[in-house]
Amino acid sequence: MEAYKREFIEFLQGAGVLKFGDFTAKSGRKIPYFINAGMIKTGDQITKMGEFYAKAYLDKLGEKKAVLYGPAYKGISLSVSAAVALSKNGLNVPFFFNRKEVKDHGEGGVFVGYVPQAGEEIVIIEDVITAGTAIRESMEILKHLEMI
To answer: Which of the chain's ends, N or C, has fewer CB atoms near its CB within 10 Å?
Structure first.
């Protein structure tokens, strides 16, 4: 396991984000741990969280530019902090997130931020993915984009 992954786990435990015990995931699956990014409560913590997500991005995609998507609600701060961390590493990537309800005034719509263009890859940034429910929900939401 890469050092940054071990450090990430230690960070999650120290911040109270990762807990061990008997839990039931949203999918109904029984799991021995629970991750709650809602426990990130300070500027230092969200900065560090973004740095870990940026390391994972760079580890998987290198310098390739993809669009970051943060599903409401926890994915919003994660995608923004990852975009900031990537920018500090010299990779300026766009990001966007969704609202839980469609806004019918002002700029309107369900999405906030960058509007992906046809052919651009989207990276979904979420706090936890177990059974794939979050991915399926995100894909359903992303169908509202004209490009998909």
So the answer is: N
48, 105, 143, 144: which one is catalytic?
Answer: 105
51/24 Cα distance (integer angstroms): 29
Q: Which of 16, 72, 20 is nearest to 45 (CA)?
A: 16
Q: Where are the beta strands (DSSP E) in 36-106?
A: 67-70, 95-103
Q: Is residue 105 annotated as a catalytic residue, yes or no?
A: yes
Catalytic residue among 30, 103, 143, 144: 103
Q: Any idea which fold 43-142 has?
A: Rossmann fold (3.40.50)
Consecutive H or E run containing 84: helix 74-88
- 44-70: per-residue pLDDT in tens? 999 999 999 999 999 999 999 999 999
Q: Is 74 a catalytic residue?
A: no
pTM over 0.85: yes
